[in-house]
């Protein structure tokens, strides 16, 4: 199966209640052969309207962060824990995340990234475990059973709300750049 086939399989999905309020399913976007996959929480208003991940203010900040480490959206693949917008941008429930995660896992399986960046608490808790705390675990490399290096960091929306998170996020992305350059054989 290809990513396109998976995306079309998802059309009209009603596996969870988030289907009721969505305009568009936000499947994910970017380079399907990227070494880096970025995972956020779920679509917001702009994403729901455009059908693309991280296109609002938080997405613009993510673009600037990527540019600071000489990467663009075409160098990475971006997805979310849930593919439909939760009402009023609330955090997706455990049930909604559980309904949608199998699609994200299929995307990971197809893309085979070597680095996964988890943006924020929802991504961290759903991919690593419900007890995981972003404030404690950000900036620390984890490794999946299949050897994917995973780095949790704050969500750009959290950085917009709290500028004191800028520096730690910048430090985390420098670590990502270092690892990426190693994988590319440039360091
Ligand atoms: S959030 Fe995921 S599981 Fe729920 S309806 Fe949307 S695509 Fe389906």
TrEMBL record:
* Enzyme Commission no: 3.2.2.27
Q: Which SMART domains match?
A: UDG, UreE_C
GO terms of biological process kind: DNA repair
Q: Name one GO molecular function term.
A: uracil DNA N-glycosylase activity
| Catalytic reaction annotation | Hydrolyzes single-stranded DNA or mismatched double-stranded DNA and polynucleotides, releasing free uracil
InterPro entries the UniProt entry points to: UDG_Type-4/5, Ura-DNA_glyco_family4, Uracil-DNA_glycosylase-like, Uracil-DNA_glycosylase-like_sf
Q: Which domain of life is it from?
A: Bacteria
One Pfam family per UniProt: UDG
Name of the protein in question: Type-4 uracil-DNA glycosylase
UniProtKB keywords: 4Fe-4S, DNA damage, DNA repair, Hydrolase, Iron, Iron-sulfur, Metal-binding
* Lineage, uppermost ranks: Bacteria, Bacillati, Bacillota, Clostridia, Eubacteriales
Where do the Uracil-DNA glycosylase-like domain residues begin and end?
27-174
Q: Which family does it belong to?
A: Belongs to the uracil-DNA glycosylase (UDG) superfamily. Type 4 (UDGa) family.
Going by the record, the broad EC class of this enzyme is hydrolase
């Amino acid at each position: 199966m290809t990513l396109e086939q998976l995306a079309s399989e998802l059309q009209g999905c009603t596996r969870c209640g988030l289907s009721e309020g969505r305009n568009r399913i936000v499947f994910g976007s970017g380079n399907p052969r990227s070494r880096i996959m970025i995972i956020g929480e779920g679509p917001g208003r702009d994403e729901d309207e455009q059908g693309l991940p991280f296109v609002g203010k938080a997405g613009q900040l993510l673009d600037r962060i990527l540019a600071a480490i000489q990467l663009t959206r075409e160098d990475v693949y971006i997805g979310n824990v849930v593919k439909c917008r939760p009402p009023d941008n609330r955090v997706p429930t455990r049930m909604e995340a559980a309904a949608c995660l199998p699609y994200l896992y299929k995307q990971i399986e197809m893309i085979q990234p070597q680095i996964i960046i988890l943006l924020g608490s929802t991504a961290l808790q759903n991919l690593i475990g419900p007890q995981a705390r972003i404030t404690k675990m950000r900036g620390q490399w984890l490794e999946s059973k299949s050897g994917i290096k995973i780095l949790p960091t704050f969500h750009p929306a959290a950085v917009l709300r709290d500028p004191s998170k800028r520096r730690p996020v910048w430090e985390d992305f420098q670590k990502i750049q270092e690892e990426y350059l190693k994988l590319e054989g440039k360091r």
